[in-house]
Amino acid sequence: MKLKVKYEDEHLLIAVKPGGVPAQGDKTNTPDMVSLVKDYLYEKNPSGGEPYTAVINRLDRPVGGLMLFAKTPEAAAKLSDLLQDGGIEKYYQAVITGEIPDEAGELTDYLVRDPKTNMSKVVEKNAKGAKKAVLTYELIDELETDEGILGLLLIRLITGRHHQIRCQLASRGCGIYGDVKYNPRFKGRKGAKTIGLYSTRIEFDHPITGEHVRVKQEPEGDAFKVIDLEPDY
Q1: What are the φ/ψ torsions at residue 165 (nearest 5 degrees)?
Q2: Tell me, what CATH number does 104's domain have?
Q3: Quick check: is 21 in a domain?
Q4: 71-88: b or e for each residue (b if 16 or more CB lie within 10 Å)?
Q5: Residue 222's domain spans which residues?
Q6: Within 13 Å of residue 117, how many CA atoms lie on the same side as its CB?
Q7: 111, 162 contact by CB (below 8 A)
């Protein structure tokens, strides 16, 4: 599998994760993004030994799109701080089933992760282990299909909780297309390699050079072929 690199300098790298590819190594022993990035960097500089690679933004296995990696410990620390401070803007496109109540807005919930099921759920604010989850969205378009109404959202992820976008949207009756974990319309079906969620834009001020970095990637995957819409974002 050839790595698709969208941006690179001596400090960091932004690459495209195909849907279905793990962000990091797991028990399936299938090729993962960290291994692909390390192989890519090693091929560029074989005499430099094993390359340093740190994941800054993780994506769920069935989610495709842009991932940010640090190439040095200094960059990893600075990018992690920037992420924690909200200085890295992360945008997603999502294909949803059903109608979202408002055409644009902010969703705020409190989520708890269940390690036994590897799923998150919306809970009360004072629930044990609850973490605040916030995103904003804009409905780009809707389409009547044989499978019902599908919508295309542009989402800005404010916080980065476990399965946040998938859980928050499903809790409002408009789950992600193809999501067998959270969307009742797809539960019971064979697990899809990809779902209708894609990391399409990363934007931030480079913490070392000061350059403004803005990288975009058009979504790929069966869900986006179904809705076949191209948003102007």
Answers
A1: -60, -45
A2: 3.30.2350.10
A3: yes
A4: bbeebbebbeebbeeeeb
A5: 4-227
A6: 10
A7: yes
